[in-house]
Amino acid sequence: MMKKEFLVGQSNELVKADKVFDLHNLYDFVGMVLEGGKRRLRIVFEPNPEHGKGNLPVSVNFEAVDYLEFSPNFGSRIVCGLEDMGYKSPGDRDDEWLLDEQQSTPDDHLFFRLEGGDFIRVHCQHADIVEATEVGLLWVPDC
Predict the structure, then answer these.
(1) Contact 105/38 with Cβ under 8 angstroms?
(2) Residue 129 CA: distances (Å) to CA of 63, 74, 81
(3) What is the pTM of this model?
């Protein structure tokens, strides 16, 4: 059962407390860090230089990962944009339709659809979105 410190708002944003993180319009996907021995995953987004000025980098952090899947050939091309996100039931392989927050259950996987058809599908025990404390703390995209 996944406990999250955020909600998926519209299919392009995460909401934590009263703060909205528009990951589609204001941020660029820059990569991830997987700590296999600790079962941690961090997906990193930097502010888009044009539309996201003034925002801090953010990471979506997953602890005690118990399911992780990438699209075939993930990483074989440069991907900088998040298209949308939502939820998929564990056995549901049709990613054309994603569940929203109200339709999902704690057992569903969080699904990130990236530009070009790539995706990251993850389930864990605890998930959170965290802002960096200073700009440039994470890394800069090659986009």
Answers:
(1) no
(2) 12, 23, 17
(3) 0.90
